Amino acid sequence: MNKVSHIPIELMETFDCIVKNEGDATAAAQQLGISQPSISKRLSSLRRIVAEDDNRPWLILKGKRWQLTQAGQRVHAVVSDLIKKYEQVEQFIADSGSFRSSVSIACGQTAAVGFVRSAVEQFAEELPEVQVRVSTTRGKARIVGVAGGQFDLAIVTDNEATIRDVAGMELFVEPIAVDRFVLVANPSEKSAWRKAWKSLPVRRPLTAFDIVDLPLILPERDAERRQQFDHWFADSCDEVPTIAIEVGGWQSILSYSAVGLGVGLVTEEAVRGFQESAAGARHNSLTVRALEESALQPEGVRVIARKPQGQSTPDINEYTQRLLDLLRKSAPQAKGTK
């Protein structure tokens, strides 16, 4: 068993910083304010101590970057939580007992600039004395973070079975929104596909047959939403879609679509967030078309938290409960669609 408590805090901070900088030791050293030899020495010490405990390293060097092992993935959330608590203790001492309450939530970039931001704005207005920490980590890391105590709440789109498997325990799971898929585009006057896009029906959702000849901008092949789209298209149409670009992240797809590179597959909430951003303001002629939902089901948005064993209610304090209530009100289905 990994004996995290026997590892000096500076080694845990180094491990956490390496992970958050995607394995880039140089960037981590700069963030920590130490030299390259110093971070190399810390990593060697960390590997030695972990090896003495169970001989399963948390990090391995591949090329010029450090990568998390399975053991590292399991322990990272716990390490991050210990660092957070250690920093809180330091702050408490520095403030001579004037400790400030805090609430932490993890979500994706789209939610962070969308309904989560709306909830946080109202929360800050009601409870200015409470600090809010919003972390934009990847989906699975949010689940692990909640299970390990790093985050009080997290917004995810994984189903309950996946949440349980990733967390390794039962968590509080509540569906709070439905985010529908749409297509977006901004073809230039010279685009060969401009006429096809402009002639699409506007009074009914689009089918796979409607978009078969359009240059699509889709999530990467291993993304869950891309696989969902591929299944929908294959089941609905005998032809092969025209894929122009594959890129990760709704905001990236929207940015590519906004400059006329093709027709992007995104969600309504992602569109709302983009339209409110500076990039969206520069490309306000982006048009949106709804997609058929019979097989391409809307993206289910869920909030997760820890819960006591055998109970159905979340194990959260009054401040986190208030943020949860505001998230419910600000979520896409509560606001309706445009």
Question: What would you say this structure looks like, in words?
Answer:
With 338 residues, the protein is an alpha/beta fold. It folds into 3 domains: 1-97, Arc Repressor Mutant, subunit A, CATH 1.10.10.10; 100-178 and 299-338, D-Maltodextrin-Binding Protein, domain 2, CATH 3.40.190.10; 181-290, 3-Layer(aba) Sandwich (D-Maltodextrin-Binding Protein, domain 2), CATH 3.40.190.10. Helix content is 47%, strand content 17%. It has helices at residues 9-20, 25-32, 36-53, 70-94, 109-112, 115-126, 139-147, 160-167, 194-198, 208-211, 224-236, 250-258, 268-276, 278-282, 318-330, 332-335, and strands at 59-62, 65-68, 102-106, 131-135, 153-156, 172-179, 181-185, 216-218, 243-246, 263-267, 287-290, 299-305. The chain has a 5-stranded mixed beta sheet, with helices on both faces. A 5-stranded mixed beta sheet has the order 9-8-10-7-11. A two-stranded antiparallel ribbon has the order 1-2. Helix 1 (9-20) packs across helix 2 (25-32) and helix 4 (70-94) packs across helix 7 (139-147). The protein is globular. The N and C termini lie far apart (52 Å). Keywords: DNA-binding, Transcription, Transcription regulation. One of its GO terms (biological process) is regulation of DNA-templated transcription. This is Probable transcriptional activator protein ilvY. Pfam families: HTH_1, LysR_substrate.
